[in-house]
Write a structure and sequence with these properties.
heterodimer; A: 301 residues; alpha/beta; Rossmann fold; 2 domains; 6-stranded mixed sheet; 4-stranded antiparallel sheet; 10 helices; 33% helix; elongated; B: 261 residues; mainly alpha; binds adenosine-5'-diphosphate; binds magnesium ion; transport (chain A); ATP binding (chain A); ABC_transporter-like_ATP-bd (chain A); ATP-binding (chain A); AAA+_ATPase (chain A)
Chain lengths: 301, 261
């Protein structure tokens, strides 16, 4: 669906090497999160796909088309919600979406526009001017705009940055439905729990290079050698009595619960050590690492 | 498979063209009425003042001489401003990159912007003519040819306007080009008087001034009288059309003003 081979980008301004020999293959139906710090190169990658930035080197294929040989064909396959973009303020939502359809060669698109506006809770804003929409509405409008030609791939560059929680959840619902109906989605975001909820594949870019690219479950598993366990006791604890657990980063919370970081292979050993000391716990919780921790590990320099 | 360039996406092309026309038709006072009024002022002042002096072509009523010049000049400014203004506003609105996302060929995009300018240029040119009917009568020697000449002139300057819009990132630079390059070329291009009446070096500017043949061809169509070699001027007009379109194509292909390198 999307094939990127040995892609590099050095911006002329500042001679900045933003992408360093990146290869990435996205299959039809995937929901991929593209993660990375500010300045990692996410938008550069997306802007190359969009035709806004000229690549320095490499091959990019969207569908079966190369962006060098069949650029125009690639436009029909992707829809892009850019990170920072403006609005043609004088138009109404309806006019802008009709124009957008026209640019894609679609003459009568009213039914689909209706559907999109309904799904994005913009129906009553149909005749509002873009300049009169709130920030959240404009974001949703941009998504509708990127979708009028029913692209096979939707790429969203930080669509939820600065959007309130409720709006974010509305968007999640929408994206999940869109994905279920067969659209391949690529999403960059700063909210890691967003990637965790929505995506089935995680790609992490750091300093212009891909440092992780795996199905989400696999990525999580490969980092779950270490688990966090939380033990609850029916009496107060004292750190001094827990000297023997020093290697497992013991922490006492609310006086009666104990948190530990333990390698999976050491789990039974640790439990044995605790019971040997005649400490009786009343409850136990095991916590897998969060994507956030994995992410921080991967990008730490 | 042969690549279709001109008719790759006709609906896309018309949508883009409609937007370009819609944009200036929404503010007709600034875009159409204002140039018309200034042309009327020129006609009143220069026409009234210079009628008795021999500045036009010998034996031709000076007002008749002036009308095609003013119509051409109006077309030049209007055609130039339309795409230039459109592109620069899109840069300001930060929507210019939308152009990269459409499946519309470069040739179609260029022609949409240029035809938008042509439409406005020809409209201003013809309205200038219409407004002078009261003073000079409605007769045109070769009406179709006159419209064609306004179209040609508008095409050349709409292409230049598009190029300037892509190259420049603010309105001040665009206005600078209008004031420092195009206005003087128009004044020295035979809009108001016969160039050969100018002294020495100033008269020689006509050889490098693209406006000179354009105005002359329009005047020939209007009154049937001309200065210099009209065949050569028609050929130059065609060359200017092709040259300006190819230059715009080059700028577009390079992605200047719309793509980041
Ligand atoms: N137009 C540009 N000209 C020069 N450098 C740029 C340009 N755009 C981005 N960069 C640089 O390229 C790097 C990657 O930026 P970007 O792709 O925007 O990162 P991200 O989207 O991951 O935050 C950054 O160092 C940024 O400063
Ligand atoms: Mg970014």
């Amino acid at each position: 669906m999307l094939e990127i081979s040995n892609l590099s980008k050095t911006y002329q301004r500042g001679n900045k090497e933003a992408l360093k020999n990146i290869s990435l293959k996205i299959e039809e139906g995937e929901f991929t999160a593209l993660l990375g710090q500010n300045g990692a190169g996410k938008s550069t990658l997306i802007n190359i796909l969009a035709g806004n930035v000229k690549k320095t080197q490499g091959i990019v294929k969207i569908g079966q088309y190369s962006i060098d040989k069949n650029e125009l064909e690639t436009k029909k396959i992707i829809g892009i919600v850019p990170q920072d973009t403006g609005y043609d303020f004088v138009f109404t939502v309806d006019e802008a979406l009709k124009n957008q359809s026209g640019y894609f060669g679609i003459k009568n698109n009213d039914d689909y526009i209706d559907e999109l506006l309904e799904a994005l809770y913009l129906k009553d804003k149909r005749n509002a001017r873009l300049r009169d929409l709130s920030g959240g509405m404009r974001r949703r409008f941009l998504i509708a705009k990127a979708l009028v030609h029913q692209p096979k791939i939707l790429i969203l560059d930080e669509p939820t940055a600065g959007v309130d929680i409720e709006m974010r959840h509305t968007l999640y619902e929408f994206l999940i439905k869109l994905h279920q109906s067969g659209t391949t989605i690529i999403l960059t975001t700063h909210y890691l729990e967003e990637a965790e909820i929505l995506c089935n594949r995680i790609v992490i870019i750091d300093d212009g290079k891909i440092v992780a690219d795996e199905p989400k479950e696999q990525l999580m598993d490969s980092f779950s050698d270490e688990v966090r366990i939380e033990l609850h006791f029916d009496h107060e604890l004292n750190l001094a009595d827990l000297e023997f657990l020093k290697g497992y980063d013991p922490q006492i919370e609310e006086k009666t619960s104990l948190k530990l970081k333990v390698q999976k292979k050491d789990l039974s050993k640790v439990f044995r050590m605790i019971t040997d000391k005649k400490l009786e716990f009343t409850n136990i919780f095991v916590e897998k690492p969060k994507l956030e921790e994995i992410y921080l590990k991967l990008i730490s320099h | 498979m042969k690549k279709r360039i001109i008719f790759y996406n006709r609906t896309g092309f018309t949508t883009l063209l409609n937007r370009e026309i819609h944009r200036f038709m929404k503010v007709p006072v600034q875009t159409v009425l204002a140039p018309l009024i200034s042309n009327m002022l020129y006609l009143a002042i220069f026409g009234g003042m210079l009628q008795t002096r021999q500045v036009g072509i010998d034996g031709v009523n000076y007002l008749h001489f002036l009308v095609p010049g003013l119509a051409s000049m109006g077309a030049i400014f209007a055609a130039f401003q339309n795409p230039a203004f459109s592109i620069i506003s899109q840069k300001f609105q930060n929507t210019i990159q939308d152009l990269n996302s459409y499946p519309i060929s470069n040739a179609e995009k260029i022609l949409a912007f240029v035809f938008g300018g042509v439409f406005r240029g020809v409209l201003v040119g013809l309205l200038t003519y219409a407004a002078t009917i009261f003073f000079v009568g409605y007769e045109i020697e070769y009406p179709v040819f006159f419209v064609l000449s306004l179209t040609a002139t508008s095409f050349v300057f709409a292409s230049l306007g598009l190029i300037c819009g892509l190259i420049f990132d603010n309105f001040e630079k665009m206005n600078f080009v209008l004031a420092i390059v195009i206005t003087p070329l128009a004044y020295l291009g035979g809009v108001f008087f016969e160039i050969s009446k100018l002294p020495g070096l100033l008269a020689a500017i006509k050889y490098i001034n693209p406006i000179y043949p354009l105005v002359n061809v329009a005047r020939f169509a209007f009154i049937g009288v001309y200065e210099g070699n009209i065949q050569v001027q028609i050929i130059i007009t065609v060359v200017l059309i092709l040259g300006s379109f190819l230059s715009a194509s080059y700028i577009f292909k390079k992605g200047i003003g719309i793509k980041t390198v």
